[in-house]
Amino acid sequence: MLLSLPALHLQTSEHHPLFELPHGRLGPWCSPTGSPAPLSCDTGCGEGSWILVYRLLVPTQVSLLSMEEDIDTRKINNSFLRDHSYATEADIISTVEFNHTGELLATGDKGGRVVIFQREQESKNQVHRRGEYNVYSTFQSHEPEFDYLKSLEIEEKINKIRWLPQQNAAYFLLSTNDKTVKLWKVSERDKRPEGYNLKDEEGRLRDPSTITTLRVPVLRPMDLMVEATPRRVFANAHTYHINSISVNSDYETYMSADDLRINLWNFEITNQSFNIVDIKPANMEELTEVITAAEFHPHHCNTFVYSSSKGTIRLCDMRASALCDRHTKFFEEPEDPSNRSFFSEIISSISDVKFSHSGRYIMTRDYLTVKVWDLNMENRPIETYQVHDYLRSKLCSLYENDCIFDKFECVWNGSDSVIMTGSYNNFFRMFDRNTKRDVTLEASRENSKPRAILKPRKVCVGGKRRKDEISVDSLDFSKKILHTAWHPSENIIAVAATNNLYIFQDKVN
């Protein structure tokens, strides 16, 4: 699988010009040769330190070339960095998701493409070196469309990707744009049938009068090919933009949520869905809130939560009624009158909600904080973490440049002990729930050089600024970490920064 890109000037780790790649011959993304760049720092979020494994980039175009070219180009390309000038709006990563085993990592972008990375097996010669992620499959999931009835353009941007548990040799995943959800099958093929009776070797039908013998078709080995095929298309069920999809624990159904409704689908039925939540008022002028995120409980197939733009979370039980407009539990924190401002309603809107792996807790992300709720306590969260409280004084300028409407995601680690979420200036934050320690790290091009040290970053609000601190006035709000993912069982994280995907891992001692 090769990527067709403009000619690039590549440099070695010593920064000497190497050569220029011809047009259309940039190979798959691989990790740098030799040991990973040791970007070590004490996170305070578990033992060890985080190091950058490598940095990946989303392609501008995708083309299929032969395996021989793939092998040759792999020797040439050693994961050197593409200049930012080559990035387009379509290259911006819009979602990142590990599968249930962590063997695969999928990214979706604004151009409607899905890129899947596969983790290589650990080397027998280097037992302590963990497997690295290389490109496994790339395909166009969604295309731009136009709704002629409403004169509305439908973007191809991938809003969410969700994996299904692997049941056989193939992998299945759901991807969605604003209107349509698709179920994709990703499978491998390393054999091809030969010896057809009614077809020649090129696949054309033969003249039956020329067939004088009967042959038994046989399977011949071939170069490994990874195929992505759409198995189901779930369309025409949402009037508003889809913001969430979630696979149920029964693995027979999933739900899709837009601003005002949540629909329940069966994987085998594409022409109808069940509306399980509808908050659309009879008069749209009476609309006071919208649905911002929704997720199924990881173990109970009848339970799900959804969050709103008012900063509230509703837990619903599908056993209570067919239409879950009446919630079972309602989670809301009373607002502190001293913090009341013009922007209070905007920054209280929840952009992401996630069940813990245990199913006991719910994590929510609003503009300034991450909160952890206990399912048995509805009146207030049990934990609140300030992500970037230093931005309170900047809310007016953030409103003017529309950054205040950014939707940050949040993720748990495999043991539910550490929380990760993004911020501006390519910063991302980790909070250890046990030690109550936190750290700010940066995923930047400057820090991705070999042997560069990934030091904890600090933001200075006012007064004297230390040498290793950055002023809040110097933050770049165009660089933002909106999408992150954590390996389900290991300390490996994926961080999306515009068109770059950074993969970090806990240092192996």
From TrEMBL:
Domain of life per record: Eukaryota
InterPro entries for this protein: PP2A_PR55, PP2A_PR55_CS, WD40/YVTN_repeat-like_dom_sf, WD40_repeat_dom_sf, WD40_rpt
UniProt keyword annotations, A-Z: Repeat, WD repeat
SMART domains: WD40 (SM00320)
PROSITE patterns, A to Z: PR55_1, PR55_2
Gene3D superfamilies: YVTN repeat-like/Quinoprotein amine dehydrogenase (2.130.10.10)
Similarity field: Belongs to the phosphatase 2A regulatory subunit B family.
Protein name: Serine/threonine-protein phosphatase 2A 55 kDa regulatory subunit B
Species for this entry: Echinops telfairi
